[in-house]
Amino acid sequence: MKNPIGTTPYDKQAHPESQVSVKNVAVGRRQVTDDLNKLLEILPQEIRQVLEEHSSHNSLVEVVMDLGRRPEARFPGKAEYLSEKPISREDLNYCIERVGHFSGDNRAGIEQTLHRISAIRNRNGEIIGLTCRVGRAVFGTIGMIRDLVETGKSILMLGRPGVGKTTALREIARVLADELDKRVVIIDTSNEIAGDGDVPHPAIGRARRMQVARPELQHQVMIEAVENHMPEVIVIDEIGTELEALAARTIAERGVQLVGTAHGNRIENLVKNPTLSDLVGGIQAVTLGDEEARRRGSQKTVLERKAPPTFEIAVEMLERQRWVVHESTAETVDSLLRGRQPSLQVRTVSDTGEVKITRELPAAPALGQPTPSWRPMGWRASGQMTPIPAKAETDRHSHNETTSFEQLLDASFPQADFFDVDAKTSGPNGEDLPLHVYPYGVSRHQLEQAIRVLNLPVVLTKDLDSADAVLALRSHVKNHSKLRHVAKAHHLPIHAIKDSNIPQIVHALQRMLNIDDTSLPETADLRLFAQSGSDDELEALEEARLAVEQIVIPKGQPVELLPRSATVRKMQHELVEHYRLRSTSFGDEPNRRLRIYPA
């Protein structure tokens, strides 16, 4: 079990978009067993001699031999030629005679070792290339997730090839069998986990190994293991077909703990993969009722998780010593399907064997949309317009650079930048903060964007019982008496807005917090209005703000902007409305543009 050592404070300046807690855990150093000499013995004399004398032979990853090309040795981060002489058929045959039988997936091994020899064949089935991969048993590699292994929950390991998934599986099987006294069965399709030959490698401990005659029969062997050998844990490498995914679900439903790997680098890959999505619960399209769609502020047809995930925990192996843990696969998938970034737990290990656990609660956009980087562009980059500093970059002690709106926020809410949902503080009128708002028919994405950018002490809730106020569209309030009755019964004020757009949402939230002072000069943060943060969007918004602040308001003159697309013009309209000005679009596409009028 992991032992807490200490806590490292979170630096908000370094991570303005996340809430992070760090915990250090001490684990033992890793021990490596590779039987490298047995792999070198199958290589031709000239190649073997060069490798034995090489200064980095202990970190060798693989040796590549292709017919008619120079042999190549690959090390972490580099590759080197081993000889000027091309590989001949005699060289290939020399290796082939000294390894085991090549199975249906063109893989062979060396008996009693973990090394893997993979073949490349020509159209006639003759071997014309070999990849001799070094197999290492690394003891202590699961120190980062040992606490998760001991829970008895099924664990899915994801990661790119070569990141160490099979090595981790092997060590997990050993720990479960030897140290936790579980009945463990390994489904070893390519003899990669327990090595080649009939006797498994000692690295798997007391775990038992079932070999698979052909890769396409792996799902049958999985079911056979459960029916015939009464395992408590089944370890599977490379779940890649729909039949194997179904077999894994069948095993999990019988109460057997599963530990496996799947094709995919991140959990988002599995969500989008129709073949393997069942591992994380499966995806289906659901049509919502009118009331539910308004409550969520979403379309009527949405994607939702179909069933409980086969694997309750998912681990993304981004690097050998940096893993991302999803302690609840169900919650992660639900968050991704609703367009919200899930909370992440990042685990890293130092050279001394100390594990650092970092929890992040990022405010990121929807699935597949990277967080837009905020950097000067257009007029701002040219120096013609002074940027308004982001909240995390503002020096609280520099009153000369702080805007009036930010001064008001600092005076009213002196608490930290991130509001703890459970921590109650007093607002300007003595109410508890953060304010819990129940949105009805209002875009949740725009609400979250306004709260995040303006750093308002507001939390969105899906439960009327825990709400302090209701924010709804005016048309819905008029047409739905049930909402009015429920709000009245809960003694909740209803704040109605005409349209679900950024300016009206911002003004409504400011009214709720009693900070809506029309006498204050307003400043627009372009992050509120940009949807994807692209160069075109930010440049168009800068153009509109420059026109408003330097011409329309001070000089009282109308201004025409450059032609833009309909989507970008809509953002410019919302920005102009933020200044309580009027704008219209005129002209024909593709030269249709905005005209801004003085008040």
Automatic annotation (TrEMBL):
Name of one Pfam family that matches: Spore_III_AA
R3H domain: residues covered: 535-599
Protein's recorded name: AAA family ATPase
Keywords, alphabetical: ATP-binding, Nucleotide-binding
Keyword ATP-binding annotated: yes
UniProt xrefs under SUPFAM superfamilies: P-loop containing nucleoside triphosphate hydrolases (SSF52540), R3H domain (SSF82708)
Signal sequence residues: none
Natural source organism: Aerosakkonema funiforme FACHB-1375
Domain of life: Bacteria
A GO MF label: ATP binding
SMART domains in the record: AAA, R3H
Lineage: Bacteria, Bacillati, Cyanobacteriota, Cyanophyceae, Oscillatoriophycideae
